[in-house]
Design brief:
single chain, globular, alpha+beta, 43% strand, 3 helices
Length: 181
């Protein structure tokens, strides 16, 4: 009987910790107007680095360290531009549409079960419109620290965030989609 009570207590304690992680992440995300961070992105083994700014709702500007490449979302379109190419996609047809939608994330996180990875990450897996998106948060400060998606070519893309700063002053001009050369 004592074992059963101990087991019930440990399970309830685990659920409280889980609920606390989730509520802390939700509160942190609610208070976040924008994020600025350095990133490492791996797509099919090809690794790229850069810096991004996300402004909720649905705006993003990322400058890559190499190849003069930028990605810009103005909330409706997503443009990927380099010195040799230019692609424009409707944002709502990309997985970034969900990542850049804070209200969507808040709703999904509230509904989903979390997974703790290596006692350092909290992961939520979102399945929406035949897309699977893993969102990662730091278990210590509850910052968004990455995501894993499939891009429009069905390549798995893993994006890891570093030096995350929130609620910085942002020049809105950066979210203007660049023109094709």
């Amino acid at each position: 009987m004592l074992r059963l009570l101990l087991l019930v207590y440990l399970i309830s304690l685990s659920n409280e910790v889980s609920a606390n992680n989730k509520s802390q992440i939700i509160n942190k995300l609610k208070d976040t107007l924008n994020l600025n961070f350095d990133f490492e992105q791996s797509i099919n083994g090809k690794i790229e680095f850069g810096n991004c700014t996300i402004q909720y709702p649905k705006k993003m500007f990322c400058a890559y360290d190499q190849k003069n490449k930028v990605i810009v979302s103005n909330g409706k379109s997503l443009v990927i531009k380099s010195t040799s190419s230019y692609y424009r996609y409707p944002l709502d047809k990309t997985p970034l549409n969900f990542i850049l939608d804070k209200n969507f994330l808040l709703k999904k996180i509230a509904e989903l079960n979390e997974e703790i990875i290596n006692n350092s990450l909290v992961k939520f897996t979102i399945n929406e419109n035949n897309q699977s998106i893993d969102i990662f948060f730091d278990i210590n400060n509850y910052n968004l620290i990455g995501w894993q998606t499939k891009d429009v070519y069905q390549n798995i893309a893993v994006t890891l965030l570093y030096s995350v700063k929130s609620n910085q002053i942002v020049d809105e001009k950066i979210f203007k989609t660049p023109l094709q050369n």
